[in-house]
Structure formats: C-alpha cells, structure tokens
Task: structure prediction
Amino acid sequence: MLLETSALVIGGGPAGATAARFLSGAGVDTLLVERDCSYVKPCGGGIPSGGFNEFHLPQNLIKKKIGRIIIVSPGDRRIEINLKGGHLYITERGVFDQALRSLATQNGASLVEGEFTGFEKAGGAFLSSVRRKDDGEEISVKSKYIIASDGITFSAGKNCAFKQPRHLYTISATMRRFDGDACEFWFGNSHASNYYSWIFPSNESASIGTGSSNPKELPGLLDNFITRKFGSNMESLSRNNEIDRPKVFPVPCWRGGPYSHGNVLFLGDAAGMVMPTTYEGIYYAMKSGQFAATAIIEGRPDNYRRMLEERFKYRFLVMSLFRRLFFRSDRTIEKWIRIHEYSAVQEIAC
Ligand SMILES: Cc1cc2nc3c(=O)[nH]c(=O)nc-3n(C[C@H](O)[C@H](O)[C@H](O)COP(=O)(O)OP(=O)(O)OC[C@H]3O[C@@H](n4cnc5c(N)ncnc54)[C@H](O)[C@@H]3O)c2cc1C
Result:
C-alpha cells in the first residue's frame, strides 16, 4: 500500500503529537505514526503549569498540582521551596500522550499504529517504510517532510547516519501507596551519580527513581536511595507489594542537536532536548513540535533550528555548564544546593 502525505511524523509522544496537532491545525496533510498507542513512557510526568497552560491542554490531565519542592543535599541540608506564580503539574504519561494524539487527530491528522523502519530519498520526496501493528502489513509513505520525534530510538537519525546524542540512564518505579504533596530531589553519590534521585507524588502513589551514566549500577543506587529515604530496601518494598518492578530508561544529554537534515527535522528527545541538571524534557519536546510545525507551515524548514536556538540555546548552554561544574562530586553538589538557598536563585531555577 502506498500512502501520500505532506508531513510524516514518526512517534506520537509529546514532540510528535504536538507537531501533528499544529501542522494539521494549519491544514497541512499530516500522518502520525506511533508504534504502540498503549505505550506508557517511564517518566515522572511533571510539567510546569506555565508550559502546560501555554498549550491549552485539558485540565483533567493534571493528576496532582505540586506547590512545594524539597531538595536534600548529600550532607542532609534540606531546602524547601514554595513555588511562586505557578505549580508543577503531575500527569500520567500514558493518558497524557493519548490526549495529545487526540488533539492532533481532532485537527485532521491521520494516525497509524505502526513502526517506522526506514526511509529513502525518492526525487524531491521521501519514501518511508512503516510496519502496521495490527496485521504486520508493510506500508510505504511518500512525504515531503519527515518529523523525527521517535525519542531515544533515533531510527530516522540513524537513517541519516547521524550520531545519536549521548545518554544518561534512569531507573524508576511506581510506589503504590504514597502520601505526600511535594516533589523531592535528593542528591548524593551513594544513590545518584551525575543525577539526582526523585520522588514525584501523584494520586496516592509516586514515581520514585534515580540516575547514573552507568546503567549497571542503577539497581544498587535505587536500593541505596530507598534505604536513605525510607530506611527500608527494594526487596522488602517488593515483598509487601508496595512498589512496581523498576524500569531502566535512557535520557539524552543535550549537545545542541541534531535539529535538521534538509527536510528531516529532529524533535524532543531525538534532538537531545532535555534540560541538563533538571532532566525535564516534556515542555521542550512540545515546543520543538510547535516550532517544527511553524517552520513547515511557513515553508521554511531551515528556520526550525533558528527558532529553537533563539528561544532555548542560552538556557541549555548555561545549565550544561552548571552540570559540568557542579554534578561532579558530593562536595560540588553541596555547593550547588547551597546556591538554591537564595530566593533570587530559587525564582530563576524553579
Ligand atoms: C524516568 C524518567 C523520568 C522523566 N521525568 C520527566 C518529568 O517529570 N518531566 C519532564 O519534563 N521530563 C521528564 N523526563 C523526560 C521526558 O520523558 C522526555 O523528555 C519526553 O518524553 C520526550 O518526548 P518525545 O516526544 O521527544 O519522546 P518520547 O516521549 O520518547 O516519544 C517517542 C514516541 O515515539 C514512539 N516511537 C519510537 N520509535 C518509533 C518508531 N520506529 N516508529 C513509530 N513510533 C516510534 C515511541 O513509542 C514514543 O511514543 C523523564 C524521563 C525519564 C526516562
């Protein structure tokens, strides 16, 4: 079967679904391909309220509104920050991504559940292969643009022979019973290296996890964090059915792209758009979707990179520098956290 469209969007996460929403909303013929519409990405699901509201997203996607953040240093220095002028909204990623895809299809985008497996150039267009999920049929899709929003799979990037952005790794699980109203960020090399350990409460449950550049050490780090935070361990929480099975998942390290290759545009995690130090990526994925769509609607795909850089490059560079300076040892992290005691810094950082 051969389908023809103007924009083929690969991946229906926050980046791809948002690009499809804006493209189809402007009347651009758009085909969104998501390999598994029931997929739930391992994620804390936290989005600043300002970013959430900017996209006019349905309020029923908010599982919890967080107004307070707790930061705990390696040496047990504890800082509580009341968020001023907004909240951190906690969403459930499976539901959130589905809702974003619905906004795209309501605007007229077509949605195919299937896996993109590669593309080749065909004159001035692209000919992509997609394997449909329900019957395994191979579909060919001819398109003028390819939106590569397939997250860390980076399949279109590999097709362009691009080097994938480097990764850090996370391990996370859902605690089935958790009573708390603050997002907690815990620092310390014994349970998080180059990263932090977190607790993001949702409705009576919480996402708990930690990160490292070495995936092999993750289970031990999570165990150490559970011991530090709860005085318990993974085994006993699992035995009492208090926690899900943990999942390991990579998080890209921002390196300034790749953003585009002719009419192939890279978005969200596929472009490494995750903020160094905080490791938040949902808002930046949605913004990259909006910018990519705008560039295509205006017939200037080369403007996409400029829009991203004008808006975010400086912030990403500064946070990247902070990460290199401070996320090195418990001693340097202790300094990083001390800075957050100043309310002026809290206002910039939170
Ligand atoms: C444990 C963890 C916690 C996190 N917590 C937060 C947080 O609280 N707040 C925050 O802002 N960020 C968080 N992040 C980062 C955030 O999850 C990502 O930055 C964000 O999901 C990126 O969106 P995306 O659309 O670029 O990619 P994704 O969300 O990964 O979406 C990619 C989509 O493409 C699909 N796909 C992949 N390959 C193909 C293919 N070949 N064909 C078709 N479809 C394909 C996938 O199924 C997926 O649906 C977290 C990350 C991790 C790992």
User: Anything to note?
Assistant: The domain at 2-44+93-161+253-324 is CATH 3.50.50.60 (FAD/NAD(P)-binding domain). The first strand starts at residue 2 and ends at 10. The CA atoms of residues 23 and 293 lie 5 Å apart.
